[in-house]
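[User]
Protein folding is very new to me. Any chance you could explain this protein sequence and its structure tokens? I have pasted everything here:
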Amino acid sequence: MVSLFGNKNAGWVGVDIGSSSVKLVSLSQQGRDCQVDSYAIVSLPPSAVVDGSVENQAEVSEAIERGLKICGSKLKHAVVAVPSSAVITKRLEISNAFAEMELEEQVKIEADQFIPYALDEVALDFEVLGPVDNHPNLNEILLVACRRDDVSNREDAVNAAQLNCDIVDVDTFAVERLLSVLDAADPGALVGMVDIGAATLTLNVFRDGKIIYNREQAFGGNELSNAIHQQYGLEISDIEQKLRGGGLDEEIIEMLVMPFRQSVVQQVSRALQFFYSSGAQSQLAELYVAGGTAGIDGLVELMQEEIGVPSRVLNPFEHIRIGSRLNRDRLMKDAPMLAKACGLALRSFDR
């Protein structure tokens, strides 16, 4: 019998290991349509991940296992990412006379010239992008390199949680993949995505769905959470939940949240100034705001007013169906934190 509707294919779970929490997103696919089946956000101790590096594998693995129980599904395969700050990417031009093993050896020879580590300490991967414009005898090669320890620490943390870590991606590639699902900007328009995490603010700028600029700066929601904790004694996990879903006292909002909101806008403005000073030819057409801080009441409106760029909270599930077992309202509040995990889960449908 011919299937008219297509089979529902379970994807791999996207696992985003951040500095303050682990985020999991599980997607499935039927035909061309994707559906989010389950997700989880599990807090991490401050010592588990430091400066993007997994320092305590056991704590990270435990958080992933708790996330799997929350998801409540029999997930077996995972995609995880290393931070772009730990990765070297370079575009090479290599003769198309090289193929398979010969090409791999040639890529290693080229890589050895600019990677500041011994090659046996580095995990390498590459992709043939196609012929170089006006040079049909050359292929453009995208090379990605990362210290092996950065890769293996994440792999080991995922595998110890009873998952199979099938792919280690790069977080910027995951965001780029997500934007291809979201972006309806005019051809050539610049689209920004600012991710305000617990410890880092990251600005990515895209043109035609491809990242053309990436910058990180040390600033994040931890500054607000720690200030509230110190002055009012609330637990960090409770603070983060109330910041996403509401429930903080008016005094806390007025004394701490409102000034912090202004600080966020100033930091985003600073990040954009660095971008424009890099030689950008035009202004952003749109700015997405992601991360746990994105849900602060009035933040996006203030940002749009002061920066002068149309801004909106990122919803990675805007064009993805929501499974019937999920609480839609809760998912929408958590959605800005799930961008990378969703982009990683989408990788499974590239197979």
